[in-house]
Specification:
By secondary structure, the protein is α+β, with helices and mostly antiparallel strands. The protein is 50% helix and 20% strand. It is built from 11 helices and 14 strands.
């Protein structure tokens, strides 16, 4: 029998320190960690074989995850030992920190292992230690002698026990990485779901806005249709009267054309606004056109209710790189909120200012209201917060506006310096997206 080897404390300490500092341990790279550990332990302890065994998922067997054979310097894996074949062995491991066996043929476990493991692999001595994570045994570190039997020292047992702590750390690091990746995947799914819900909310808000404007838009279309019918009746009478000058007929035809174009503009505005523009490309769009098209959808409603619209539009050359449908919706949301706020006020007006200054484009919408109560200013941008009556609003208008503006790398805020209620959408003159 080989006497117990006294491991040089310096060498053992250096090995433990080097293994504890392995980057692969905390990075959860188990393959690299296992290979490095089994090799280092075999060399430091002078054992013939060193292996790491882990339980399978249902804990019915242990599987050799990495086995280093010093004799030929080879690494292998995949050996399986079923737990029900070795009750005495696992009973010992469950009770202690290590299991030192100087002579495998003289130990209580020999009847379990002799034919299945000791004899086939020529095992003479072994020193095993359970790997525990959270107090639960998840695997085994096994050091074996094939060349001769060996008495294991307390130094040996302490060293092996310390190595199992490092292995437990590596396994926990891997479990954390798996949990993090699973969480990241879950977060990605949830974010996707939130984006889908956000898109649905935006579309629902659009439809709600269109529903509120439906009556005035119908009136806006019916008026020119009535005019066209009148002009057509006039043309018919002209056809029956040969004395009517041709230029008068041409004038009526031109009037019909202009009225038809007015209807066409309204319908195009509706189609433009109603579509989902969340996936549109960002394009350079004339701001005055976006503002005009948006006002087309609500001008009749405002005029019919005695609300004055004051506009200070930019030069036609001023463009904003944007998703036009999104900007139109943001403007219409603010106009709708302003209308609801001052609908019953004695003085009703909405002012739209759009200008560029210091490489910043601002669209400011001010109404004749007396501003927002300081107690709720911090809440008005929150989703579902509303000061409107039951069934009047969704509470999503301002939060949707903020989302659209931020998507354009802009800022949306309440101008608290204004004597009236005034919201500002601010965009960089040039947006890189």
């Amino acid at each position: 029998m080989t006497p117990a080897l006294k491991l040089p404390e310096y060498h053992v300490g250096q090995t433990l320190l080097r293994l504890a500092r392995l980057k692969s341990i905390d990075d959860g790279e188990l393959e690299a960690s296992y290979k490095e550990i089994t090799f280092a332990v075999a060399e430091a302890m002078g054992v013939d074989r060193c292996s790491i065994w882990l339980f399978n998922e249902d804990e019915t067997a242990i599987v050799s995850t990495k086995l280093y054979d010093k004799k030929d310097g080879s690494f292998s894996c995949g050996h399986i030992l079923y737990a029900f074949d070795f009750p005495i062995y696992f009973g010992f491991l469950n009770q202690g920190r290590t299991l030192p066996i100087a002579n495998v043929l003289k130990h209580e476990t020999s009847t379990e292992f002799e034919h299945l493991y000791f004899a086939p692999y020529n095992i003479k001595s072994l020193l095993d230690a359970p790997i525990r994570v959270g107090g639960k045994m998840v695997g085994i570190l096994c050091c074996e002698m094939t060349s001769a039997t060996r008495d294991w020292s307390m130094n040996d047992e302490t060293f092996v026990a310390n190595i199992t702590d490092i292995l437990a750390r590596a396994i926990q690091a891997k479990e954390r990485l798996i949990a993090i990746h699973a969480l990241e995947k879950l977060v990605a799914v949830r974010n996707q779901e939130l984006e889908e819900q956000k898109t649905k909310c935006i579309l629902a808000s659009k439809m709600a806005t269109l529903g509120e404007m439906a009556g005035s838009i119908a009136h806006e279309i019916n008026n020119p249709l009535a005019i066209i019918l009148g002009y057509l009746a006039m043309l018919k009478s002209m056809e029956e009267d040969s004395s009517v000058a041709p230029d008068r007929k041409a004038k009526v035809i031109d009037d019909i054309k202009m009225t038809t174009l007015r209807i066409d503009k309204i319908v195009k505005g509706l189609r433009f606004f109603a579509r989902d523009g969340s996936h549109d490309d960002f394009i350079s769009s004339p701001l005055h056109q976006i503002l005009e098209d948006t006002l087309t959808l609500c001008r009749q409603k405002f005029n019919h209710n005695g609300l004055k619209i004051i506009t200070n539009f930019p030069e036609k050359s001023l463009t904003l790189r944007c998703q036009p449908v999104g900007i139109s919706q943001a403007i219409l949301n603010l106009l709708g909120n302003a209308y609801d706020a001052i609908e019953k006020s004695p003085e009703k007006w909405i002012k739209i200012d759009c200008f560029e200054s210091n490489n910043v484009i601002k669209i400011q919408i001010t109404d004749s209201g007396n501003g927002i109560d300081s107690n709720i200013r911090e809440k008005i941008m929150n989703p579902f917060f509303t000061t409107k009556g039951m069934g009047k609003g969704t509470g999503l208008g301002l939060s949707i506006v903020r989302g659209i503006v931020e998507q354009h790398n802009g800022a949306f805020y309440l101008d608290t310096s204004s004597a009236n209620t005034s919201f500002v959408m601010q965009f960089p003159s040039e947006i890189s997206l």
